[in-house]
Design a protein that fits this description.
globular; 5-stranded mixed β-sheet; single chain; 14 helices; 415 residues; alpha/beta
């Protein structure tokens, strides 16, 4: 039985269109200037305009030639790290169309703070092609096993390694800290009413629409866990409690919580989080005159500062956070998660680890990324009595400071 006539005509048209696009004939040919510019626009040594407007870079060498000495600053990583990243993402990128190197370069340039107009002009692609390449790379980053977050809290040896890193880096009296927890408010454009149930939920107390992102890092400033699911108006403690890891650590009967409590391991956090057997937070009221509690608060803050520094490294490397996120709302968490994973990739790569990504001080002018500060709560405020919160891990860590006789370093009087 023969197919209908309209199917035959459609198939023939598709075949002819594909052939025209492949050979760049007819309306699918590249635009050629009808006439060269007048001679007054060219110097005596300038060659006539090329027959084509732009060529799309296909290889790493093409991209490196295009950016020359600014490659590291444009891609936010050196060439060898870029090559390794392309090799990691290649199995999860489409084979047709742009090359994996070109797709990755487009995405990194956008995530590094470039405007879509500049990216399209630099690579000679249409905006739709640019955004398609961006989301293909973002999906590839989020699905590549070698770039996945690997906390491994259930492994006792991994916890000991984390604790040793914190103790050696800060010369801390605590040898039981396995991670630093905090939240960051990432500014975004106002969500549409069709995307969320309540738009006002995403308006943060900082005065802009944001996503409350919770993260845990190790002593090497690598993010071991993150969650980007809570609206900007959420309190850090509530945002963490809504995550799968938060529910597990706040449940005393959980297997992971009991294993950490038995070994005395904990995660350090600020006053925004409730004290528990695996979350070590400062004593309220600066210790209320107790010098050992004050010393505990100081050394706890020395461990917790790692997460603040990690957020600073993240926002300095990826300039997409210097302005409100202007991408479709359902895709914003994926973009944020990809930036966190790429940060870990750079921290784990020897050449990209301490790469100077922004040597000029004006790069971040107008930046609006906001690190959520501590949610200071009075001990007598209704709804939460921080002085009534019980935590055996906090008491034992304070007793260790006292047994070692370690006080807060003295500060010379200013007057």
């Amino acid at each position: 039985m023969l197919p209908p006539a309209w199917q035959t005509v459609t198939a023939a048209f598709a075949t002819n269109a594909a052939a025209a696009m492949h050979y760049q004939r007819g309306v699918f040919s590249r635009p050629v200037p009808s006439s060269p510019l007048p001679s007054r626009f060219h110097s005596a040594t300038t060659d006539p305009a090329p027959p084509h407007f732009c060529t799309i870079p296909l290889t790493v060498d093409d991209i490196q030639t295009r950016y020359r000495e600014h490659f590291c600053r444009a891609m936010r990583m050196p060439v060898d790290a870029f090559v390794d990243l392309v090799d990691s993402l290649r199995p999860r990128l489409p084979r047709r169309g742009l090359s994996p190197a070109c797709r990755t370069a487009i995405a990194l340039r956008y995530l590094g703070g470039g405007s879509y107009l500049d990216v399209c002009a630099a690579f000679g692609v249409h905006p739709s092609t640019m955004y398609r390449a961006l989301w293909e790379v973002v999906d590839a980053v989020n699905t590549t096993p070698s770039l996945a977050f690997d906390f491994g809290l259930g492994n006792r040896q991994r916890r000991l390694d984390y604790a040793g890193g914190f103790q050696s880096r800060r010369n801390s009296p605590f040898g039981n800290v396995v991670g630093a927890l905090d939240g960051v408010a990432i500014e975004q454009e106002q969500p549409l009413a069709s995307d969320v149930q309540c738009v006002a939920d995403y308006y943060s107390r900082k005065g802009f629409y944001a996503l409350n992102t919770q993260a845990i890092c190790d002593s090497d400033y690598r993010f071991r866990w993150m969650s980007c699911l809570s609206p900007g108006s959420s309190h850090d403690s509530s945002a963490f409690a809504c995550t799968e890891l938060g529910r597990a650590l706040l449940d005393p009967t959980n297997v992971l919580t009991r294993a950490m409590a038995e070994d005395g391991h904990c995660i350090v956090a600020d006053e925004a989080y409730a004290a528990s057997e695996v979350l070590a937070v400062p004593w309220p009221g600066c210790g209320r005159g107790d010098r050992w509690k004050d010393s505990y608060n100081f050394h706890l803050s020395s461990c917790r500062i790692h997460i603040e520094q990690a957020f600073g490294m993240l926002s300095w490397r990826w300039g997409v956070f210097w302005r409100p996120l202007r991408v479709p709302f359902p895709k914003r968490p994926s973009l944020v998660r990809a930036c966190f994973r790429l940060h870990n990739f750079c921290r784990g790569h020897e050449s990209a680890r301490d790469c100077s990504t922004s040597p000029y001080g004006t790069d971040r002018v107008g930046g609006v990324v906001s690190l959520a500060p501590n949610d200071s709560v009075s001990a007598d405020q209704r709804g939460r009595r921080r002085d009534r919160e019980r935590s055996h891990i906090r008491v034992s860590m304070t007793a260790r400071v006292e047994s070692l006789g370690v006080l807060r370093p003295g500060v010379a009087p200013m007057f």
